[in-house]
Design goal:
Keywords: Signal. This is S-layer homology domain-containing protein. By secondary structure, the protein is an alpha+beta fold. It is built from eight helices and 18 strands. Helix 2 packs antiparallel against helix 4. The chain is elongated and about 95 Å long. The N and C termini lie far apart (66 Å).
Amino acid sequence: MKKFFALVAVAVLVAFAAPALAANPFMDVPMNHWAYDAVSQLTSHGVITGYPDGTFKGNQPMTRYELATLVARALAVVDMDKASKQDVEMLKKLVVEFKDELDALGVKVDELDSRVAVLEDNLGGWKLWGEFRFDAKWAGESGQYDDEYTLKGDTEFDLNRYRLWISKQIDDNTKFVARIGNSSGNLSWQRYYVEMKLGYDITMTAGQWLFDWEDESGLYVDEDAWFTDITVKGFWFAKDFGMADVQAIVAHNDDRLVGDGDYMLYGLRANFNFNEQFRFALQGLAKSYDDPNGLGLNQDESVYWADFAFNFNPNIAFKGAYFVEDLDTAYRANEDSPKAFKAIVDVKQEAFGFTSLWLEYAKLDEGFNVWNANNAGDAFAYDAYGASVLINRNWDETDILFAYLTQKWNDKWTTFERYLQAEYDTTGVDDAKNWTFGVRYQHTPAVMFELSYDDVDWGDSTLAGTRTGDDHVVRFRTHVKF
C-alpha cells in the first residue's frame, strides 16, 4: 500500500512538474532539436542575424528564451528580397514552437502572425493578387437589338473579367507592376510599367498604365468617366508641391476607332488643395493623330476643364466641372469648340443614416463628344450595367439627370439604385431613360455576389436610325478578389 501511494505521489509530481519544465524559458533546447537546423538554414539565407553583436554560440546549446529572441528579431528585420517561401514556412514553425516564450517576452504573437502574412504576400519582394468576375445574364424578350447589354442571345453565361497582378519592389526608388487579363476572350498583358522616384519629389511612370484624373477629383461613380479612366503607353510625371500636385503625360496610343489612326496624347494637371473644405484643379488633354482618317479630315482634338469640390462637412460635398473642347475640324457638328458642365451633390450614408445620394446634372453642347466610354464615344457613356442609353444622341444639345443611391445595411448586405434621364434637342428623338436596382451580398471579405435588374427605354423616336422601345436584363455576378 505504501508503495502504491508513493507511486501515485511521484506521478502527481511529474504531472505537475512537466508543464512547468516545458514552460521554463531558461531550459536548454536539446542539440538534436529541429529548431537548430531551422536557425542554421535561416542564418545561411541571411534571415537571422544572431545576437545583437551579430555572433552565435557555436555548438553550445541555447535556451528557449534565446531561440525565441532570435525568432522575434528575424520577423522584425527580415529582408523581403531574401525571404523565400521555405524561409517563411520555417519562421511560421518557429513561431508556433516558441509561442509561450514569445508571450513571456511580451511579444504579441498576433503581430508576428501578421508579419508572417506580409512576408507571404511579398515573397522575395514579389507580390501577387487578382480579380475574377463571372456574369449570368437573362435579357428581355424583344431581342430587337442583338448588341444591347453585349449579349449574343437572350441568355448568356460569360467570364466578365479575369485579372492577375504582379509587382516587384526592385529597390527603394523603383517598382515594377504588370497585369495580365482577358480581353475580347483572349489573355493579354494589359498593364506593364515601372514607377521610379527621380529626386526632388518627382516620380515617373513608364510603360502601359491607366490614369484617371476624373476619379482623383471624385467626378463620377461606377464606370462613368468622360475623358480619363483610360490605358495609354508612355511617360507619366508627377510632383507634389505641398498644397498643389502637378502631373504631366506624354503618350502614344493605337486606334481609338477603326480608321482613326494612331495618335499622340499630351496631358497636364494641377490640383490645388487649399484646405480640408476646398479643392480646385485645372487640366487639359490633347490628341495629335499621326495621319488623317480616310475622309482626309484632321481629327486633332483637345479638351480642357476645371473642377472643384467644396466639403460642407465630411459627409456632404458639392462638386462641379466645366469642359471646353477644341476640334481642329468640326467634323461632328457646326461647333469646333463645344462646351459642357456637370454639377454634383455627393452625400455619404453617414449624413442621412439610411442611404447615400449622388445627384448629378450635366449639359452637353451641340457637338460635344465624350472620349472615354471604353474609347467608343458618348453613345456608351453611363453604361455601367450595359445599356447604351445615349446611343440616340445626334450631336445635338443634351441634358442629363443622373442619380445613384446605396444603402449599406450591415457588413454583408447592400442595396443600390440608379436612374438616368437624357433629354435631346433633336427633332424626332425621344428622351431616353435608364434605371437599375440591385442587391449585393459580401459572402466573405474576398467573395461578393450581386443580383441586379437594368432597364433602358429609348421612347418612341421617329428619326431614322435611332432605337425605340425598351429592353432589360437580369444579371447575377460572382466577384472574387484574391
